[in-house]
Amino acid sequence: MLQGFSAELKRLSIFVAICLLLGWLTGHLLLVLDIGVLAYLVYMLWQMSRLNRWLLRKNDEEPPEAAGIWGDVFDNIYHLQRHQRQEKENLQAVINRVQEITSALKDGVILLDWRGHLDFWNPAAQRLLGFHTKDQGLSVINFIRHPRFVSYFEEGNYSEPLELPSPRFSSKQLQFQITRFGKNERLILVRDITQIHNLEQMRQDFIANVSHELRTPLTVISGYLETLADNNNLGPTWQKPLQQMQQQTQRMALLINDLLVLSKLETTEVGHNQKLIPLDPLLHSIRNEAMALSGDKEQEITLSCDGNIQLLGNEKELHSAFSNLVVNAVKYTPAKGKIAMRLWKDKQNCYFAVSDNGPGIENKHIPRLTERFYRVDASRNSSTGGTGLGLAIVKHVLLRHDAELKITSEVGKGSVFTCVFPLH
Hints:
By secondary structure, the chain is an alpha+beta fold. The protein folds into 4 domains: about 1-90; about 105-190, 2-Layer Sandwich (Beta-Lactamase), CATH 3.30.450; about 200-265, Orthogonal Bundle (Helix Hairpins), CATH 1.10.287.130; about 275-420, Heat Shock Protein 90 (2-Layer Sandwich).
């Protein structure tokens, strides 16, 4: 650009010198200078016209020949055009590659603009939700009208996926996961989880049916064992075997009852039989049950309630969750240990905590404590008579009340289990 500018200055200097010479020779200096300026302006307009005509052409032709600064302008614009065209081709190649990848996915991919309107979708999303080309630019809620999806979409909390029946195929179950990106744009991943859903339903039905079927023979066995234990004709040799059989029968009965409770929690609709529950009398009842269970261990079990707190929920489910936490504390806290039950609230949440000074739990076990049948120490469950389902029941009850369980523990010092209920 500097070389062209220098050349243009030289050309202009020579042109002015010629005009001055002609003006001096003819005796009309001003007139000749005016004509020279007008000629230079006409030259500039002509070059601008050439530039404009070249830019308006859509074909990829080289720029017109020009010298000086105009030559540099033509060349620089041409190089910028080529660079821009190359960048565009590279970007288009990336877009084509992304489209090829998304087309190969079995999961549906939907891109929404900042308004929540359809911008792009892959063939899997079209197959699962029935989109057409004319639907581009329409709101996604026009196609997925399920109230739970509308609430999920508008609330904006996408930390967990949402499972719903397919709006197109009643026999299919879909999972929706929304992710924000860019300027409030959203990406929706749609996954067909029909097979997983059916397997889960089969598992739930199997557990529920087996648990129900086992109760009758177990009741018969338990009845005969009680009859044999009350029979004075049996010698002392049979006392210990009968006692052990009765203990194992009771453990089996507890396991079946817990499985039935879990099955009911998984299959019953959320919000079933909910009402405002005064928690003070409920927790006093649980404390009395814990005192009876503690028996000869002489544990100190205290209860602290901040005011008359009420909670919207299912009383039977909440009793089961709170009772499981307190019963676990009684089982694992040594004799004459301390167990504290505390209920309080702030502006956002209501809290119920059970703390003890038992053996504590290593941090590596805490994330898995709510899994079914997970054992920190296999020997502990057999010695305490636990089923391994108590905390799983607590987790399911809290999920049904939009609550969460927080666990803190230190080996040798004890544990704290806290239920956090949002007040909304």
